[in-house]
Inverse folding.
């Protein structure tokens, strides 16, 4: 446990000492702040549904920037061998990098809480959909981080890692648009792989165990595959 705590602290220091983390947070908050203000003045509705869907898209675009260096940089700098021969397991290495990246996701969500606070200050919003929306974003971000971490484990090039994970995210975003064209039961299987299909209920205030299970399973599967990828090296 002590070695994991040391490794986690190292990863968090590396992440938050990088300008990428602050650039991602700045761009995220600027775009969401502009969108929230503009939409609020246009619609005059005390709702964050549109904000959650826009965060959904922004998370897909920014998650690769957060995760691309996690393991690819270790391989490029040839520090992977040193890390793997240290008295920590592959599981601890992967979890430390995952938790460090998720801490940035959590900070971004906490900072965006000012939008909900603004709605509460100026109106009387229904906080049920707001709570479910943030839960959905947290689970969604977890799956993205896991997938990005796996992509980073498979290559030493950070750009390739970022493009690979971004490609997967975009494909799983729009896959439901093409899944309906397939014959049964392939259509149901393909549609259920869509990130948007499983996130949409959270954004509108509905929580289903199947959607929670999808994101949790995606996170656990990608982390397991990342551990296996490290163990084979």
């Amino acid at each position: 446990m002590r070695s994991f705590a040391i490794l986690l602290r190292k990863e968090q220091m590396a992440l938050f000492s990088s300008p990428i983390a602050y650039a991602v947070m700045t761009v995220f908050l600027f775009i969401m702040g502009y969108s929230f203000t503009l939409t609020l003045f246009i619609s005059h509705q005390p709702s964050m549904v549109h904000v959650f869907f826009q965060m959904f898209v922004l998370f897909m675009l920014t998650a690769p920037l957060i995760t691309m260096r996690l393991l690819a940089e270790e391989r490029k700098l040839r520090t992977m061998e040193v890390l793997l021969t240290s008295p920590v397991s592959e599981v601890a290495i992967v979890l430390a990098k995952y938790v460090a990246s998720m801490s940035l996701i959590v900070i971004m969500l906490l900072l965006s809480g000012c939008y909900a606070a603004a709605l509460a200050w100026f109106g009387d919003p229904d906080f049920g959909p707001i709570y479910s929306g943030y839960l959905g974003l947290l689970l969604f971000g977890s799956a993205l981080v896991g997938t990005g971490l796996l992509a980073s484990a498979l290559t030493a090039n950070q750009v390739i890692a970022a493009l690979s994970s971004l490609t997967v995210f975009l494909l799983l975003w729009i896959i439901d648009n093409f899944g309906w064209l397939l014959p049964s039961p392939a259509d149901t299987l393909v549609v259920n792989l869509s990130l948007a299909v499983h996130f949409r209920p959270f954004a509108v205030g509905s929580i289903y165990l199947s959607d929670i299970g999808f994101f949790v399973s995606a996170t656990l599967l990608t982390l397991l595959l990342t551990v296996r990828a490290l163990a084979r090296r």
Remarks:
- The chain has one domain: 2-231.
